[in-house]
């Protein structure tokens, strides 16, 4: 498994599916765009804010439950992609629970655990940045990638957006 982190959450409007871009930590710095529902993107974006203690979201509650278990959450894994649908799991010491990629990322961000991606998913769907660009910074590379995101749609990646 390869560690990734959320690099960008892009929402272009209600007609277009939001995309969350994961970037490979270390290695080639490949970027993995995952199209998802507006709710999934909002849950990931919401993980950057302090939770409302009086009215927590379901992802905040799930994160608190994951921390409270005798068997705490270790990591989230993006395990597969089939026709544009990404599959994931939340991994505990003695078990893994299947979940949607957006939910796995949202919970992982809330509890501060790593997000990992199966090498074969990054090999097939990851986008390699220009060789002279810093994969985590590079303003020119980021701008080119944003232009790419603006010009591409989920159907360009084997079958359409993730169904959430």
Short description:
This protein is 31% helix and 29% strand.
**Whole-number tally of structural domains:** 1
Helix/strand structural class: alpha+beta
CATH superfamily: Bifunctional nuclease domain
Order of helices and strands: EEEHHEEEHEHH
The count of β-strands is 7
Query: Major sheet, described briefly?
Result: 7 strands, mixed
Summed up, the helix count is: 5
- Average of per-residue pLDDT values: 80
Which value, in Å, is the CA radius of gyration? 16 Å
What is the CATH T-level topology? Bifunctional nuclease domain
Give the spatial strand order of the biggest sheet: 3-2-1-7-4-5-6
Organism: Propionicimonas paludicola
Protein name: BFN domain-containing protein
Pfam family, one: BFN_dom
GO molecular function, one term: nuclease activity
Which helices and strands occur, and which strands form pairs?
Layout: E1 2-10, E2 19-24, E3 31-35, H1 38-46, H2 58-68, E4 73-82, E5 85-92, E6 96-100, H3 101-111, E7 114-117, H4 119-125, H5 139-151
Parallel strand pairs: 4-7
Antiparallel strand pairs: 1-2, 1-7, 2-3, 4-5, 5-6
What would you note in describing this structure?
By secondary structure, the protein is of the alpha+beta class. It has one domain (2-156): Bifunctional nuclease domain (Roll). It contains five helices and seven strands, in the order βββααβββαβαα. Strand 1 (2-10) and strand 2 form a beta hairpin. Helix 1 packs parallel to helix 3 (101-111). It is globular, with a radius of gyration of 16 Å. The mean pLDDT is 80.
